[in-house]
Amino acid sequence: MSASGIIDCHVHLHHNWGDRFACAELLLRGADRMGVELMCLSMGVRREIYTRPTTVEEMHQHNDEVAQVIARWPDRFAGMCYLTPRFLPQSLAEIERRVAHGPFRGIKLLWDMYCDRPNLDPIAARAGELGAPIQQHTWIKAIAEHRCESEPWRLAALARRNPDTTFLAAHTGGNWELGIRQVIDAPNILADICGGDPEMGYVEMAARMLGTERVVYGSDAPGRSFASQLAKVHGADVPDADQQQILSATMRRVLDL
User: Fold this and answer.
1) What are the residue ranges in the chain where pLDDT is below 70?
2) Which residues constitute the domain of residue 215?
3) pTM, full prediction
């Protein structure tokens, strides 16, 4: 991988796009067209993850599918180990199995539990010891909230309790003008700009208020396209060096590449 290659911090396998390998091939075709060299991959193709809390067996199955994709394309995918903090001992064991002993490089948390709850602290502490970033779904909603869907302020509370751990605020809360403000005082949180429409001002505001070194590119593919999410960075009114920081340099440091 070249030093300037784009790193996408946020992609998934998804049931709408076939089995794990078919979905991975779809991601690779899109990534190749857009110059994305490495993708941080989490969650398998099981659809239950979106409708009800995850069981321990399903957590293992999600990570098994991601591991199988990594084994086939080790230079193109970096695994983010999906955990369900409702089952803390099993989640900690999964960190040891998948992250401490490889090949996963980080942790993925969704909405099985609000992320400011005490159950998250042992997970965050172990991630910090391993140098593994935690990517937490964040979204600000007035209605139609998923179960235990966390706002960025909840992640900021967890991050302040665990200052040695790097966190990625996935989607920066959806409502990014509020989300960016909610994580300002937690310097170990990076704004993951994935998902949503490529709105003007998103990257500029994040860079101005957080610093470019705290803003990272992600697509949320295949739910969103690589091109629409790259447009947030390529169309931003920031210097080329800052764009390179957002597209590659920061995640290269976080993943210790």
Assistant:
1) 1-4, 144
2) 6-254
3) 0.95
